[in-house]
Amino acid sequence: MTIRDVRSAVRASALATEEPVGRSTAWWGVMLFITTEGTVFAALLGSYFYLRFQHGGPWPPDGIREPELLLPLIMTALLVPSSLPVLWAEAGIRRGRRWQLRAGLLATLLMGGTFLGLQGLEYSEKLREFTFTSNAYGSLFYSITTFHGAHVTVGLLMVCWLLAGSLQGSFGAQRHERVRIVAFYWHFVDAVWVAILFTIYLSPRL
Fold first, then answer.
1. pLDDT at residue 70 is higher than 50
2. Nearest CA to 192 among 160, 144, 158, 153?
3. Percent share of the chain, pLDDT over 90
4. Whole-number Å distance between alpha carbons of 97 and 179
5. How far apart are CA 147 and CA 198, in angstroms?
6. Looking at the predicted structure, is the pLDDT value of residue 21 above 90?
7. Could you tell me the pLDDT band of residue 15, with boundaries at 50, 70 and 90?
8. 3-class SS of residue 131
9. How confident is the model at residue 89 (pLDDT cuts 50, 70, 90)?
């Protein structure tokens, strides 16, 4: 090996090619956050089933009607498919298509915002029948759905942040990690809603 070969091997560019490629701190932070929040949701849903089976009587109790399905199913039809425009937006920015990123984020923002609006409409109807302090069912219903709604709100704020950055040209084919991180979070929010739909709205009918 010549001296030239040695110098070429230790150049910064050559050393960079040998560096292991790993996940960023932001990626690990969001994954830890999702894991933590997933555990909290699991505890809440587990508490729902525990109290339901311990109750022994009709569920929901105290003459509360079974949850109606029409509005929750419409909400599901809005929220769960909203993962698709996020995927489309991420795929677009990987190819440097900022217009595709903006369009996908805007579609997600509209679908998620409509979901929250319908949840508010549902609350306006439910509060006439029972409140957070009515009984254990009311406490669980509002705790679980409000906690999830808060996560949807955080996700929409993240989407707004990405959309504002995309309008300023912050992202490109080589700079899109933040888009991927927010997409992971949004998929988590959608998956949790499916579990909530089954637990709160469908399981009382089984």
1. yes
2. 144
3. 80
4. 13
5. 16
6. no
7. very low
8. coil
9. very high
**Cα–Cα distance list, 117 to 34, 56, 141, 149, 166 (Å):** 24, 35, 17, 10, 26
Helices marked H in the chain: 3-9, 12-18, 25-55, 70-79, 83-94, 98-126, 136-167, 177-196
Q: Is 139 exposed, middle or buried (0-12, 13-18, 19+ CB in 10 A)?
A: middle
Amino acid in the structure at residue 116 = L
| Peptide bond between residue 61 and the one before it cis (omega within 30 degrees of 0) | no
Distance of CA 162 to the CA centre of its chain: 15
Evaluated on CA atoms 199, 204, 205, 206, the torsion sign reads positive
The pLDDT of 102-112, averaged and rounded, is: 97
| Whole-angstrom distance, CA of residue 53 vs CA of residue 203 | 12
Task: For residue 194, give both structure tokens.
Answer: 């499916």
Give the list of residues 6+ apart from residue 83 with CB closer than 8 angstroms, or none.
186, 187, 190
In the block, residue with structure tokens 């549902």: 122
Compute CA distances 94 → 89, 101, 120, 168, whole Å.
9, 9, 36, 17
CATH topology of domain 25-205: Four Helix Bundle (Hemerythrin (Met), subunit A) (1.20.120)
CA–CA dist 206, 203 (Å, integer) = 5
